[in-house]
Amino acid sequence: MPYGVSVDPNEKSNLYVSDFMNNCIIKIFNMQVISPLPIIVAGVKGSGGSGANQFSFPTGITVDSNGNLYIVDTLNARIMLWHPNSTSGHMIAGTGTAGSDSFSLNYPFGILLDEDNSYIYVGDTSNNRIQRFSLLGGSPNNGTTVAGGNGAGAANNQLLSPIGIYISKKTKALYIADQANSRIQRWNQGEQSGVTIAGDPNGQTGSNATMLANPFGIALNDEETFLYVCDTTNNRIQRFQII
After folding, report:
1. Fewest beta carbons within 10 Å, which of 85, 124, 192, 229?
2. How many CB atoms neighbour CB 235 within 10 A?
3. What is the pLDDT of residues 131-148, one digit of tens each?
4. Res. 180 pLDDT band, cuts 50 70 90
5. What is the pLDDT of residue 31?
6. Percentages (nearest 5) of helix, strand, coil residues in the chain
7. At 154, is the secondary structure helix, strand, or coil?
8. CB-based burial of residue 200 (10 Å sphere; 0-12 exposed, 13-18 middle, 19+ buried)?
9. Partners of 183 in the beta sheet?
């Protein structure tokens, strides 16, 4: 069961895919699966666990300009950094045990890399918050809550099981798939609350053109004029114009 996908920034025809149920990361060459065959680059296929060479349901994934993989190890409540050609990774965020303090994560899903500023942003789903960790931090790594963290709910300063994250290259605002609220929130850097830019502000689901139902992944186009949303329960991709 594939979950996360990331394009290699240096070799844009290569993909990395998190194989959720098989507990491994697959590399696909040249956007095809025949020659060469895809290879496992992280984890042990079919063998979940908490060792440095294992995952327990990997979800979000991203890759940096040096080919390093950043992998959300969901049930292990940690983020793993895996260098090219390594046989194991090391934990750069989370503690390996679910928790709600600034060092911990609880059922994380989404991840976003801000390589220019040496940060990763994590959709800390069961803690209803977005956590930012410095890539220069130690282990355990002390995270900063940059959105949510005010309990589960649909108020402007709350999130409910957030997953997807995108950061504006122009304004550095965070765009958040507030999954269980069926809305997309825009949260400016340093603000204590966000605004709804797609879906229902009060967290209601729907299937018409203005509504969403459990959105997961999000992205902006290069000009940041359109927002694309994986509207999961509605089985569709929605495009919204950014105003």
Report:
1. 85
2. 9
3. 999 999 888 899 999 999
4. very high
5. 83
6. 5, 40, 55
7. coil
8. middle
9. 178, 199
Contacts of 158 (CB under 8 A, 6+ apart): 128, 148, 150, 151, 152
| Residues 133/146, Cβ–Cβ less than 8 Å | no
Tell me the C-alpha to C-alpha distance, in Å, between residue 26 and each of 5, 7, 31, 73: 10, 12, 12, 15
Instruction: Characterize the bridge pairing of strands 165-167 and 144-148.
Output: unpaired
Q: Strand, helix or coil at 56?
A: coil
Q: How far apart are CA 3 and CA 218, in angstroms?
A: 14
- In the prediction, which pLDDT does 102 show? 98
| Burial category of 67 from C-beta neighbours within 10 Å (exposed 0-12, middle 13-18, buried 19 and up) | middle
In this structure, what token pair is assigned to residue 148? 């949510």
Secondary structure element (H or E) that encloses residue 120, with its range: strand 119-124
Q: How far apart are CA 219 and CA 232, in angstroms?
A: 14
Burial of 115 (0-12, 13-18, 19+ CB in 10 A): middle
What percentage of the chain carries pLDDT values higher than 70? 100
User: Quick check: helix, strand or coil at residue 45?
Assistant: coil
Q: What is the pLDDT of residue 138?
A: 81
Q: Could you tell me the sign of the dihedral formed by the alpha carbons of 23, 24, 30, 32, in that order?
A: negative
Distance CA 184, CA 153 (A): 14
Residues in the chain, overall count = 243
